[in-house]
Design brief:
alpha/beta, Oxidized Rhodanese, domain 1, 2 domains, five-stranded parallel β-sheet, 8 helices, Inner membrane protein YgaP, transmembrane helix
Length: 180
């Protein structure tokens, strides 16, 4: 299945010339930190394509533009829309990073630790804990380090990170309001 894409510059021209529906599928905390000025937050883990399309007041014939940090999660969101029968969805190339780098209008809020960085901190801490427990308590604790390593390999192979999904649901990764 091929998902249509658009550059941030081309989308900005469309946005300036009229109504343009843009959803941001990052976590609420990521969205609160920085987002394209007209983007509405609809996190990927809670994305309901039918509800999003129903909220567009019957404008399902107009394209729905989807953005995330770099384009990966937006691609997954587009696939969800297509699977639900809505094919007029477009992934914004390079995501919010490319949008901001192009100098296009963004809204900046409270700085947070990125989800990717949180995963590295948590995984590293668990590997270190497992190694220390294996040395000082019992060798079986080496299994903790092996389990985390296997999880990281699985995440790399499948492009699905269970630890990232779990961390995204933590209270510090939630924002008081998920939309504009």
């Amino acid at each position: 299945m091929s998902i249509n894409t658009i550059s941030p510059q081309a989308l900005n021209k469309l946005r300036e010339s009229g109504q343009c529906d843009l959803i941001d599928v990052r976590t609420p905390a990521e969205y609160q930190e920085v987002h394209a000025s007209d983007a509405v937050n609809s996190p990927l883990d809670r994305l309901a394509p039918k509800q999003v399309m129903d909220a567009r007041n019957g404008s399902t014939d107009q394209p729905l533009y989807v953005i995330c940090k770099s384009g990966n999660r937006a691609g997954k969101a587009c696939e969800k829309f297509v699977a639900a029968g809505y094919e007029n969805v477009v992934n914004v190339e390079g995501g919010t990073d490319a949008w901001a780098s192009a100098g296009l209008p963004v809204v900046r809020g409270k700085k947070t630790i990125s989800l990717e960085r949180q995963v590295r901190i948590a995984a590293g801490s668990l590997v270190l804990l497992g190694a220390l427990l294996a040395i000082f308590v019992h060798p079986y604790f080496a299994g903790l380090s092996a389990f985390v390593g296997a999880g990281l390999m699985f995440a790399g192979i499948t492009d699905t990170c269970g630890m990232g999904m779990l961390l995204a649901k933590m209270p510090w990764n939630q924002a008081p309001s998920c939309s504009k």
